[in-house]
Structures are given as C-alpha cells and as structure tokens.
Description:
By secondary structure, the chain is an alpha+beta fold. The protein has a domain at about 15-145: Aminopeptidase (3-Layer(aba) Sandwich), CATH 3.40.630.30. The chain has helices at about 30-45, 60-70, 120-135, 150-160, and strands at about 15, 20-25, 75-80, 85-90, 105-110, 140-145, 160-175, 175-185. It has an 8-stranded mixed β-sheet with strand order 1-2-3-4-5-6-8-7, sandwiched between helices. Helix 1 (about 30-45) packs across helix 2 (about 60-70). The structure holds coenzyme A (COA). Coenzyme A binds near residues 48 and 49.
Amino acid sequence: MPGMTQPEPPDDGTASGHTLAVERVGDFTDDDLNALCEATNAAIIEGGGFGWINPQGRVSLESYFRGLLLVPERQLFVGRLDGVIVGAAQLVRPPRNNEAQAFAAQLQHAFVAPYARGHGLARMITYRVEESARSLGYHVLNLDVRETQEAAIALYESLGYIRWGVHPAYARAGGRTIRGIHYYKLLQPGGRIA
Length: 194
Ligand SMILES: CC(C)(COP(=O)(O)OP(=O)(O)OC[C@H]1O[C@@H](n2cnc3c(N)ncnc32)[C@H](O)[C@@H]1OP(=O)(O)O)[C@@H](O)C(=O)NCCC(=O)NCCS
C-alpha cells in the first residue's frame, strides 16, 4: 500500500561473494556495449522481457543502444556483476506536451541476463531508477509486465509496486496472446502526488 514500509535500498557493494554495481550510462566503451548486447540476447533467448521475441543481430542491437543514449526522455541504467554489464533498465520521462502526466515517469525494459540472476541486481537497478526519478521530481513510477514474467511480478510486488490493472491483450508471444499486469509506485514521502 502507499506509504508502507519499504526494504532499505542496498549500497553498491558485494553480495553473495560477487560485486554488484549500478550506474547510469552516458557513453559506451566497446567492452561495455559488447557485454550489454550479449546480456540482452541472452535474456531474449531465455524468453523474458525487453519486448523482443527473437534474438537480434549485433549491428541492430548496437544501433539500438547507441540511439537510445540520444533520446532525451530516456535514461539507461546498467547493472554490473563483477564489473561486467549483465542487465539494464530504462527510466522514461513523459514528453513535454503531456503536462497532465508531468508528475509520472515509467520504468521500462528491465532485465538481468539469466547467467547473472539471483544476486539482487534487479532490485538494485530498480532502486537506482526510482532514486533518479525521485531526484528529477517525479511522484509516480509506472511499469507493466507480461503476466508470464513471474520473477518480475514477485520483484516489483516485493518493492511495493501496486497492481492496478490487467490488460487482456497486452502482448503476443509464441502464437498466443498474453495479459499484461500494470503497476505504479508513489515515490515521494507520504505518497503525495502534488
Ligand atoms: C525479473 C528479473 C529482472 C529479476 O532479476 P534478478 O537480478 O534475478 O532479481 P533479484 O536477484 O534482484 O531478485 C530480487 C527479488 O525479486 C524476486 N525474484 C527474483 N527472481 C525470482 C524468481 N525466479 N522467482 C520468484 N521471485 C523472484 C524475489 O522477491 C527477489 O528477492 P529475494 O531474492 O530476496 O527473494 C529477471 O528474472 C529477468 O530479467 N527476467 C526476464 C525479464 C523481465 O521479466 N523483466 C521485467 C519486466 S520488463
């Protein structure tokens, strides 16, 4: 519920013998872009998230991520396990013409590669995105997931996201229509939105 006690955000550091870190990306080194593309395709192949159904060619993925850094409304955050990028998420700000929803941002395209899951990195990435949204003055963070993304549902519900609706025709994958679960979280102390 809004205003409920939330778990404390972890500091960047070590967990389960691994070093975890999350950062906002302003530019890519070749190694980082390579690792991000590898992690993205691994997540796509495993079947969860990011919108893509089929693995993408390296040129296409590199163009996507390089282009992403040029979009003013989007911030890209990456998670590192032992220094290597293995996951990401995007904070999406509303367009300037949307004054009526200027208080709300979106968390999109969160994923952690299958080979890096279970270390708390997605939770750390989510906290970092929330922190950035809060510092930019947003009061609400919205997100949505396919109902088949059980780990993501558990993650966001454990972090206090409120399920407010179900979209019956949200996505198509594997020849079937999949429902979408929509969530929001109030970001500011006391849950106020103005
Ligand atoms: C959802 C996802 C990002 C979680 O990544 P992760 O780094 O393994 O998650 P974390 O280790 O930070 O887990 C944090 C919490 O999420 C929940 N969680 C994560 N994986 C889970 C699983 N397989 N089953 C149940 N709960 C799970 C748990 O509450 C967990 O806390 P705990 O370890 O203290 O029990 C990852 O599974 C993924 O990329 N899935 C496919 C893409 C996707 O669904 N993206 C989200 C929407 S676009």
